[in-house]
Amino acid sequence: VKANNDGGILPWIMLIGPPKWVMTKPDQYGANFTPFPFDREAWKQTAAHLAKHYRGKIYGFEWLNEIVPGSLCDNPVADYLDFCRIGTEQVRKYAPEMKTMAAGGLWPRNYLLDLLDAGLGEHVDIIPVHYGSRNSIISVKKDLAARGLKNSVIDDETASGMTVFNMPQLVAMTNSLNQCRHVMAHWPSELAAGCEMIVYFGGRGDACGNWSYLLDINTPRPVIASIATVIEKLGTARPIGTYAYGSKGYIHVFEKNGKGVIALQPASLEDTVMEIDCVASKAKATDYLVTDAGREFYLQGVKNPADLNVTMVYYVEERFDIKKRT
Asked: For the whole model, what pTM was predicted?
């Protein structure tokens, strides 16, 4: 935690398994991605200690990870709801600036709906999804709105795995572009749908590649450039809306510092021509991989549309006040 803080990063703590001392079944080793019977008073004291100890050092807490109802509890809704309620009460008491999250990737959907109906939205600040999409973000936001809830929705685990073990270097780089496509296609669509934060899964060096953006601490993979591109273009942008471009794909529109930023998302990996009417004297386009040479170019013309052969996602920035055009 200190190393993160020293680097300007505010992490959060995910309780993946229960502390042994709060569990009520001596023979129960771990939760295995399910809720579990627990000692309410022991958990209350533990949550209070965690909140006081980590105050000012972390963003908050995520109560378990990718849980399903499982078979450990007679009532998995009531037990998990109590776990969140007690934990969040202590966090709000001793570190009110911290945020609390339900278990990311909690499923199936009917389990989430039962929890929301039982009051989960009041006992956490954030509802996270895992490996989300535009549709999954919209689905959760609709479920919350139908219950009068305004919890934040985030995607706190997403990536595309790709092993490159023993591949020739050029083949490894070419195949790894699938990871770039995942970031460039999914992230703008989720942000445009109202997702408030996205977290990439895989930050440790991995000689096989797999989910990580690093082969080792000194060897980044192509996806790191895509992540940097999305952060630079959309990290502080405000979503305006998403529009279908016929059958060719989607146009996600954002506003950033009074300028328009458009993310073009093709429907397939085949070459797709998407015409963008440049209303400014020139508009800057950036593709999926930004190199030292730039890989940025300008689209000229006020009246003539610019034809882009899109096989990834492009970001088009136009110099106009988008507020006057919405």
From this structure: 0.88
